[in-house]
Write a sequence for this structure.
């Protein structure tokens, strides 16, 4: 079926299929061959999924949009992806730091990966599929009115509840990263 794909993309599809099969509760009623059919014709999206995978995101299908005819993938790693931690919220936050500047920021990294940060609503949807970020936290897309005041939002799961908090956008911690989504 996927003979025209590079070896790395064939390996990625094998990884995604294994994860899909292992976590059927995340995508009830969906069939892997249909997902794979959408992926095989789209090297740009495969490349983004490969980057999500290589930074520790463990992307998986979590939904299907009937209006746009797209499958929705979220980072489903148990904790915030290890290759995307220790970053400020955005470039403005990164540049505002006087000392100990972070090497990157969540918004620019997401753009480079070809994904979007999860919104608070999407983050809460993800948490209905399992227990994520029980030891870490993840930046979530911050409304512009909060960001204009210097803040940014992050979320996690503690005490079996999902919490959304605020912090200044320049802050960063070794256990805070970000989760993303992509539509295919």
């Amino acid at each position: 079926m996927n003979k025209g794909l590079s070896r790395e993309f064939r390996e990625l599809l094998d990884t995604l299929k294994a994860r899909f099969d292992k976590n059927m509760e995340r995508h009830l009623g969906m069939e892997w061959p249909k997902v794979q059919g959408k992926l095989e014709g789209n090297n740009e999206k495969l490349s983004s999924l490969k980057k999500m995978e290589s930074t520790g995101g463990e992307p998986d299908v979590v939904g299907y949009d009937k209006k746009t005819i797209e499958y929705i993938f979220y980072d489903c790693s148990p904790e915030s992806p290890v290759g995307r931690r220790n970053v400020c919220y955005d470039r403005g936050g990164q540049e505002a730091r006087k000392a100990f500047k972070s090497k990157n920021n969540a918004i620019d990294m997401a753009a480079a990966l070809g994904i979007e940060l999860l919104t608070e609503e999407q983050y809460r949807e993800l948490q209905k599929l399992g227990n994520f970020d029980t030891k870490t936290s993840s930046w979530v897309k911050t409304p512009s009115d909060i960001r204009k005041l210097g803040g940014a939002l992050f979320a996690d799961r503690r005490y079996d509840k999902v919490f959304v908090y605020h912090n200044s956008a320049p802050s960063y911690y070794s256990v805070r990263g970000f989760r993303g989504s992509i539509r295919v």
About this structure: Residues 7-22 form the longest helix (16 residues). Strands lie at 59-65, 70-75, 116-117, 137-140, 151-158, 161-168, 176-178, 180-183.
